[in-house]
Amino acid sequence: MQLDFQKIIDISDTPAARRAQVNAVLDRARWASQAFQRYDREMTLTIAEAVANAAYAKAAEYGEWAVRETGFGVAEHKTIKNQMTSRTLFEHYRAQDFVNPRIDGSRKIVEIPRPAGVIFALTPSTNPIATVYFKVIAALLTRNAIVLSPHPAARECCTDAANMLAQAAEGAGAPSGAIQVVSDPSIPLIEEFMRSEKTNVVLATGGNAMVRSAYSSSNPAIGVGPGNAPAFVDGTADLRKAARYLVESKSFDNSVLCTNESVLITVQENDGALRKELRQAGAHVCSEQETNALRNYLFHNRGFNVEAVGRDARWIAVQAGFKTAPKVSVLVTPITRVGFAEPLSKEKLCPVLGYYVASSVTQAITQARALLRMAGAGHTAVIHSGDAATAMDYAAAVETYRVVVNAPASQGASGFATHLPPTFTIGTGYFGRSAIGDNIGPAHLIQWTRLAYNKDDSEAMGDYSGLGPRFSGPIPTAPADGVPGSARRGANATPIPRTAARPMSAEEQSLRENIRRIIVEELRSALRK
Amino acid sequence: MSEAKQEFLERSKEFWNPHKTQFWQDVGVDLVIDRREEYFLYDLDGRRLIDVHLNGGTYNLGHRNPELIEVLNAGAKHFDMGNHHFPALARTALAEALAACTPPELKYTMYGAGGAEAIDIALKSARNATGKRKIVSIIKAYHGHTGLAVKTGDERFSERFLSEDISGEFIQVPHNNLEQMEDALRGRDAAAVIMETIPATYGFPMPEEGYLPGVKALCEKYDALYIADEVQTGLMRCGTMWAITRYAVEPDMIVTGKGITGGLYPISCCVASERAGKWLKEDGFAHMSTAGGAELGCVVAMKVLEILQRPAVASNVGYIADYLRAGLDDIRDLYPDFFTGIRQNGLVMGLEFNDPEGAKPVMRHLYEQGVWAIFSTLDPRVLQFKPGVLASQALCEELLGYVEVAIGLAQAEVFGSSRQRRAG
Fold this sequence. Notes:
heterodimer, A: alpha/beta, Aldehyde Dehydrogenase, Chain A, domain 1, Aldehyde Dehydrogenase, Chain A, domain 2, 2 domains, 17 helices, 17 strands, globular, B: alpha/beta, Aspartate Aminotransferase, domain 1, Aspartate Aminotransferase, domain 2, 7-stranded mixed β-sheet, 4-stranded mixed β-sheet, 15 helices
């Protein structure tokens, strides 16, 4: 009887209730973002660093939790990703100034950074925690408020992580509500968030349908597309190293990253030697029957068999009906065509690597383009080559915005094994129906107000040195008159003195390099296991 | 003013309330509220006003809050007011929800249709529970206009109706004065002390530190009940569900009304301790109210309580209070001679001006700027400034802009004219 009463008045599944839920979160985020814009660079970095450290400390715990909850990937590898997207990411951006104005005397232009405001961030099931870490730290560095909406398959670990980061941020002085999480995401609710006029930008990482929906939300959106990276190994490549990078990368986190190689393309002259090196590096090169069995297992009429996402190579081989040597971490499937007729040339979020032998460099490039026409446009391509001219031909031809050279793609495209900006959100640009083709980073979460002087020499530019927004710090707590211990103020709180942007010292520079090196080594050793 | 509005005002004078209708025309506020949504009122002539009067917190969650409309519509498919004699699903469910969000000693909910009725119920219950008649309140108090409630308040509202207390049962003592409170209670003949936690109609004079706990201690000492009138200060307006708990006082009864049903289906509630609700076990038919605790009102009230207890609301209230205070402090720095003080607990704010009627020109200039805030009837130096708990940052920023301009204009008017008077 009591239950019936509750049912009569239950309005939770109505547009009004959803709108109210969304407004409550976004209004709070707006308050936080406006308060955040009063913070100077030093306070901003203090908060971002505290959050990066808290994230780093829990990298392993959440790595395991994510695997347990989603069933995807390898806990140790997720730990590494979580470390990279916490301390490494922060160290990378520590020296960049997203807070103070830039003065360009020669062009008579002053640029003031303006945070986006409220970011609505969707995070995927495949890189759940790393993406949460990445987006939160990028938002904090740019004094934005962020609302995270985790993929339902990774809801629990992401919600816990987001709350933990929010606590760390507020503990370090961030405005209340700067980091929030939607703990009960549903499609109608997410759509309401995406189209709310209180959202300033949607930062979408995930499946294609969701990304397209972000773009159609009527709000500015930074979305990414799927990957399907071709990896070309040409005749000048160091085959041993190439094979090692390929196997390392393809087995990393059981290939759930969108930056993982999809099809290896090589030329006739490499074929035998490359197969041998691949086996040496830990790959199992499949026979024709095994390839057929894998194809049947991985693809059915409805598409990719999601059961295989993020599973390890031996498990997949067993499901497909064959056995491999115990140390095998990648299954290489030779294919004779690239295109819709060959499912194994599509994106496979598991350690199965297509293997195609081209008759010439020209044909290899044509096939790489063909692969990207099916999926992965704008994302990532890879080349292993000692010849700059071939690399140039390849890069100028393939429709991607990053071509990783002589490095594992999974860490190369995301900027951890190359000097690209480190990211867990890969912009796929115009090729991939996205606005931005860069590795997404804090720079995309601010825009600049520009004071532009008259070109004419008779109009002199003013002196802007030492000028900037008034960084008055957190909003002082209002008194609650008569309540014991409540703040009391006679006059306005003294504004917190502004500190000028501080260049990074040589010591910090070297510390940063060291941390980067340590993490790359950790990554390497984890991959060798 | 449009012709249509002019005509309407004539009818209002003829059939509704001639003096009140004319009063507003005389003070320059020609408002006839037409459409309303969020924290906006639209005048019959189309002008938009930000509402920081909120009818004393009635529109705490905004005008025509969409969730409240939704739940009222859902409820109306099944319920009406109900029959006040019988146990009722909605009334009991709301009573349970109120017991869960009031101090632990408070248990029963007794229902009225409006705030004053719930005050009368509280006073009657106190008399029943203690077997005593005397009621102590604050000078210039305001608890409504019904039979007992009106006697606790300023005589401005009772004398005209020959309804002031003549029996000596209703004692009034000055606010923030524990000695006189003790004098009033010392005879151990008082049933209750009734207080608004922050007296609204008196312009929100703030309780001094220790005052309210001191009153509560005196109540215990002299065996009187403490009734907290939280009609205007409760429902998160001071950052906690009930302002009284911020002052570390556990009252014997809490009265709520206005905002409890979001301005959509009025009911009022008196939540009482076991002792204060003694008559409910003796003779449950002793007090009745057909519209009291109307079930549709209960349905709306349950949603109000649920919304107010969302974590984002507490955070929002903190931001609004801090942000507006910082902005108001800046405005005070601009007009220090005129804008002399800010009384504040959360979103309950009183702005003090350096003129006996100073809040009236500010009210009028705010009205011209597009803000509706009302002066304090019993202390017109003070403007009641009461934003809603869901106010957004953009709204608060817009509001501060108007406040700055209006106070500037009001200062010029007040000081300009006083200078002229002096010169003349």
